TrEMBL record:
PROSITE patterns: C2
SUPFAM superfamilies for this protein: C2 domain (Calcium/lipid-binding domain, CaLB), vWA-like
GO biological process, one term: regulation of canonical NF-kappaB signal transduction
Family: Belongs to the copine family.
Domain C2: 1-115
Protein's organism: Sinocyclocheilus grahami
Record gene name: LOC107581366
Name of the protein in its database record: Copine-1-like
Molecular function terms, GO-annotated: calcium-dependent phospholipid binding
This protein's GO CC annotations: plasma membrane
Pfam families listed in its UniProt record: C2 (PF00168), Copine (PF07002)
Length: 464
């Protein structure tokens, strides 16, 4: 499995029209950043400096936090009026706060929101503006090295020696690279009669990261496909994988919530298509492998993750579980959307398809071809297996044990499938599933846009 995407994000904070709690002067505000550690507990990450006598502070101290795409990172910003030297904030006046996720911030790059004096209460006075930047130098040196007039009896200069030369001449080297010039690194005299000349040419190129694309305006479109085949069991029976427990959940809903809560932060309108497959659908009860959960073929969108959950609960008593288990229709449906996105000239859209299934796939050959085709598009596929079935075919589609190929032998252009069985997370924290299945998505997104040589909609400012 690929390493999780961990980046350092720098947050710039400013406020406007803050409450004035001081008598005879203005407030002396400070911003503190807290991160949720679960169970309604918060841990302080960093705080800004105190700005004296100011209701519209623009804090110079940046707040830094590790960013993980595959997690929901809940943040709380608190603005306090500091009138003493104590580090403890309990004796300071609270001017307002704001809660959100780090995903919401980086997907917008800059947000302005009203401050609240108490959670779930009407807004108080003032606003907070948060701007995110990734902490990195996204330039990479592309180099070509050529050796001329080498004596066959003498070894080529070692990499260590070459690096030493580059470091020694780095000032001239980089100034020339910026213009794409060729630079004669050095001449190495081995004897009076033989001269060794090494030529290095190069140019600084931007290497865009996942956050560059997301902060630059790339939307992640989330689609869900749900297995309604008969092997799941009658939804009215407690033994069924589609049975809703007294608290209204099952394995399918757990997977939807876990993955959806992460991905939804990266889609502005939060309208998510949701489909079912393998069921007999009213009014004629013909088998369908691509029916909208809301039964609206013209608009299969659900409002947010909660909308998908509501549509799932609504559709269960109206359909008849049947079969077989075919993946390719829904994969092809999302691929058509991704193909339209691929026509754009910059990195504006990327698709993530979540398929939740209970068993062996029936159209394996067609699905292999669909995945090979989709690997050339801005698209990733996540498969979550529920129940106790044998998921060898899913592991084969994942491609971790070798490059997936179509029936005709065509390999995938890039790895886009991630499969995990839900039973592996029975004793794990509820966040663990999303962290596992989403870990590869950032690299998959970057690999597609790099393959197409596509820059972010709004590229980051050059590093000076």
């Amino acid at each position: 499995m690929a390493a999780h995407c961990v980046s350092k994000v720098e947050l710039s904070i400013s406020c406007n029209n803050l409450l004035d709690k001081d008598v005879g002067s203005k407030s002396d505000p400070l911003c503190v950043l807290l991160q949720s550690v679960g169970d309604d507990k918060w841990s302080e990450v960093e705080r800004t400096e105190r700005v004296k006598n100011c209701q519209d502070p623009e804090f110079s101290t940046k707040l830094h936090i590790d960013y993980h795409f595959e997690k929901v990172q809940k943040l709380k910003f608190g603005i306090y009026d500091i009138d003493n030297k104590s580090v403890d904030l309990k004796d300071d006046d609270f001017l307002g706060g704001f809660e959100c996720t780090l995903g919401q911030i980086v997907s917008s790059r800059k947000i302005t929101r009203p401050l609240q004096l108490k959670a779930a209460k009407p807004a108080g006075k003032g606003t907070i503006t948060i701007t995110a930047d990734e902490v990195k130098d996204n330039r990479a040196v592309v180099m070509e090295v050529e050796a001329k007039n080498l004596d066959k009896k003498v070894d080529i200069i070692s990499l260590c020696q070459l690096c030493t030369v580059v470091i020694y001449g780095r000032c001239t080297f980089y100034s020339l690279l910026l213009s794409g010039y060729v630079w004669d690194i050095a001449r190495f005299e081995q004897s009076s009669s033989v001269t060794y000349e090494n030529i290095l040419s190069g140019i600084l190129e931007a290497q865009y990261s996942f956050l560059d694309y997301v902060m630059g305006g790339c939307q992640i479109n989330f689609t869900v496909g749900i297995d309604f085949t008969g092997s799941n069991g009658d939804p009215r029976s407690p033994d069924s994988l589609h049975y809703l427990s007294p608290n209204g959940v099952n394995q399918y809903l757990s997977a939807i919530w876990s993955v959806g809560q992460v991905v939804q932060d990266y889609d502005t309108d939060k309208l998510f298509p949701a489909f079912g497959f393998g069921a007999q659908v009213p009014p004629n009860f013909q088998v369908s492998h691509e029916f909208p959960l809301n039964f609206n073929a013209n608009s299969p969108y659900c409002q947010g993750v909660q909308g998908i959950v509501d549509a799932y609960r609504m559709v269960l008593p109206q359909i008849r579980l049947y079969g077989p288990t075919n993946f390719s229709p829904i994969i092809n449906h999302v691929a058509r959307i991704a193909a339209e996105a691929a026509q754009q000239t910059n990195a504006a859209q990327y698709c993530v398809l979540l398929i939740i299934t209970d068993g062996e796939i029936t159209d394996l050959d067609q699905t292999r071809q669909s995945i090979v085709n989709s690997s050339k598009l801005p698209m990733s596929i996540i498969i979550v297996g529920v129940g106790e079935a044998d998921f060898k075919a899913m592991e084969f589609l994942d491609g971790d044990n070798g490059v997936l190929k179509s029936l005709t032998g065509e390999p995938v252009a890039r790895d886009i499938v991630q499969f995990v069985p839900l039973k592996q997370f029975a004793s794990a924290p509820k966040e663990a599933l999303a962290q596992s299945v989403l870990a590869e998505v950032p690299n998959q997104l970057v690999s597609y846009f790099k393959m197409r040589n596509m820059a972010p909609v709004t590229p980051p400012s050059p590093v000076k």
